[in-house]
Design goal:
Layout lengths: L7 H11 L2 E2 L4 E2 L4 H11 L12 H18 L4 H14 L3 E5 L6 E5 L5 H20 L4 E3 L8 E3 L12 H17 L2
Antiparallel strand pairs: 1-2, 3-4, 5-6
Helix pairs in contact: 1-3, 1-5, 3-4, 3-5, 4-5
The chain binds zinc ion (2 copies).
Length: 184
C-alpha cells in the first residue's frame, strides 16, 4: 500500500505543531485562531480551509491535538506511542479513502467530514505512524538541551541526533566546553 503521502511533509507538520508551544520558555505561538490559520498556510497550504474563519473552538481543538502529539514523543516505548497514535486516529475518525486530487488516485486517511482539528489530527498522526513504523521509537526525539523541550524526528543515518536544532547543539557544545574549562 502506498503511504508516500504521509512522509516528510506531514512529519514536519507534526513536529512544528508540537513546537509551537515552548514548554521551557512558556511561550505560546498559537494564541488566536488566526495564528492557527497562519501556521497552516505556512506548513500545509492545502489545508481544508472551509468557508468560515477559524474560531476559538478550533483553536482549542488544535491545541488538544498538539498535546496528544507530544505524548507520542514522550512515550516510554513503541507500544505506548502506538497506543497514543491509535487513540488519536480513532478519535478523529481517520478513515482510508481514495483521493484523486492531483490526478493520480492515492490513499488518504482522514475524517469524512473535515473540521480543521480533525484533519490536522489525522494527517499528523498518519505521518508519525509511518515514521514510527519505518524508524522505530529511537527516531522520536525530545531535545536534550537543558533549556529546550522541542521534539524532532531523527532522520540521521546512525540515529545519533540529540538536539532539535543546530542552535541547541551549538549552545550545548559551548556550555560543555565552558564546564570543561572550569574543571581544569
Ligand atoms: Zn493527496
Ligand atoms: Zn532544542
Amino acid at each position: 500500500m502506498d503511504f508516500s503521502h504521509y512522509s516528510d511533509e506531514t512529519v514536519t507538520l507534526a513536529v512544528d505543531l508540537v513546537n509551537t508551544l515552548e514548554v521551557f520558555g512558556d511561550s505560546e505561538s498559537l494564541e488566536r485562531p488566526g495564528d492557527v490559520e497562519r501556521f497552516l498556510d505556512e506548513h500545509a497550504p492545502g489545508w481544508p480551509r472551509g468557508r468560515r474563519s477559524l474560531t476559538h473552538a478550533d483553536l482549542h481543538e488544535v491545541k488538544a491535538i498538539r498535546s496528544r502529539l507530544r505524548s507520542i514523543f514522550s512515550a516510554v516505548d513503541a507500544a505506548q506511542a502506538a497506543e497514543h497514535l491509535n487513540a488519536l486516529l480513532d478519535d478523529v475518525a481517520a478513515t482510508p479513502r481514495v483521493s484523486t486530487h492531483g490526478g493520480r488516485p492515492h490513499l488518504h486517511v482522514e475524517p469524512a467530514v473535515a473540521g480543521v482539528a480533525g484533519w490536522l489530527g489525522a494527517v499528523t498522526a498518519m505521518g508519525l505512524s509511518v515514521a514510527l513504523i519505518e524508524g522505530g521509537m529511537e527516531r522520536m526525539g525530545i531535545c536534550e538541551s537543558s533549556t529546550c523541550d522541542d521534539v524532532f524526528v531523527d532522520t540521521s543515518r546512525n540515529r545519533s541526533r540529540r538536539h532539535c536544532s543546530d542552535t541547541c547543539t551549538t549552545r550545548e557544545n559551548v556550555a560543555a566546553h565552558r564546564r570543561r574549562r572550569r574543571s581544569l
